[in-house]
Design goal:
It is a single chain. By secondary structure, the protein is of the alpha/beta class. The protein contains 15 helices and 20 strands. It has 2 domains: 337 residues, pyruvate-formate lyase- activating enzyme (Alpha-Beta Horseshoe); 80 residues, Arc Repressor Mutant, subunit A. Strands 10-11-9-8-7-6-5-2-14 form a 9-stranded mixed beta sheet, with helices on both faces. The two termini are 14 Å apart. Bound molecules: iron/sulfur cluster. The site of iron/sulfur cluster has 11 residues, from loops.
Length: 449
Amino acid sequence: MDQKLTTYATRTVPRYTSYPTAPHFEAATDGATYAEWLGQLPETTPVSLYLHVPYCRSICRYCGCHTKAAVRDDPVVDYAEVLAAEIDLLARHLKGRRRATHIHWGGGTPSLLPAESLRLVVQHLNAAFDIGPDAEHAMELDPRTVTEDLAARLVEAGINRASLGVQDFTPKVMEAIGRIQPYEVVADAVARLRAVGIEAINFDLMYGLPFQTGDDVERTTRKSAELKPSRIAIFGYAHVPWFKVHQRLIDVSALPGAVERMEQAERARMALEELGYVTVGFDHFAHPDDSMAKAVREGTLKRNFQGYTTDTAPALIGFGASAIGKLPQGYVQNAPDVGGYKRAVLEGGLPIARFKTLSDDDRLRADIIEALMTGFTVDVEEVCGRYGVDPKALDASFDALVELVRDGLATVEGWTVTMKPAGRPFVRIAAAAFDAYLNAEAARHSVAV
Ligand code: SF4
């Protein structure tokens, strides 16, 4: 591989699931600002909801999520009661029982919620929000936990999309990441979900794992596609042991290098395109009949904390420890530690730990970055026009793109920036050129590919 591409692939840049990115949120002393924002949300504004359940039965070595191990159900049952209380608390700050268009349960392993706990939280959701039959209601699942009983409980709760963590089917790789989950386990989980009518199924695959080769990635991708998931995301493993200490169990010497990582991502992309999947941004793929492929065709694709999304609701409300929400006025994040989160809710306060009020400059740059990340092109003059800003104010960002243009990875024509096909894996680097907050801390982000 070209030495230049290797250099780009090892650059550390944010994933831009938000702009400004979470490290730039500010400490909140109380929930007053959030309460004010919620109160200003017009009654007719639809919302999407995110619920975070930070528990798993055991911790996988590669995990980058905000979660902890719960061997017994007690802490999970307890947590569900606090989630229900938080929903009630938040609903009191909103005008009216508004429509929820998307609901996403993430974690952790939200399917660890025992039947009664899941029922309780869903009852509180239904009381606070108008959840129509057309709402997308998704839950992240560990395929090893999908029993017939769980599938039935999910349907009863209204779940109509399941997102399964698949990673890689290669025995040596599964062993190295501490998660043994062969193809048959995933196939059984899919069959159980489909048997109860949950047809929309997403798979999350990974590359860059210890001992993983390009052949492993391609074989896993093709085997996964045999199960006909509606969406497949392929994420690069981010080795950040200073942040996620359990990753110290991963043998660093077994991790693929930058060149191998790029080839692995490329082999997965080529296999999925050959199999008829539509490429969505730089790491998602959708069946042509899926709503995400339609969003790509219609130019309505968005980006949020789950990555690429079809969700166009102007407000995202997060529930649970560490959950992030976004309102038109800015971002809010709940207390990350379960203890602090619970205390705040039980004392009757919104459990906010951090927030970020958006300035006009933030909004302008966020629009540019989202356009690049979703469609690989942006007319900066047009975006600036929406904010009454002279695009010359972004000259420094264009200067930062010179290298990508020189290396044939992007073009700049007038004020329009476009990633060339060869440059698409590096779109985060182009987005970073428009990030006013990025500084020497860059080393704490994951590598570009
Ligand atoms: S099941 Fe998912 S969230 Fe839980 S430890 Fe494993 S990777 Fe992390």
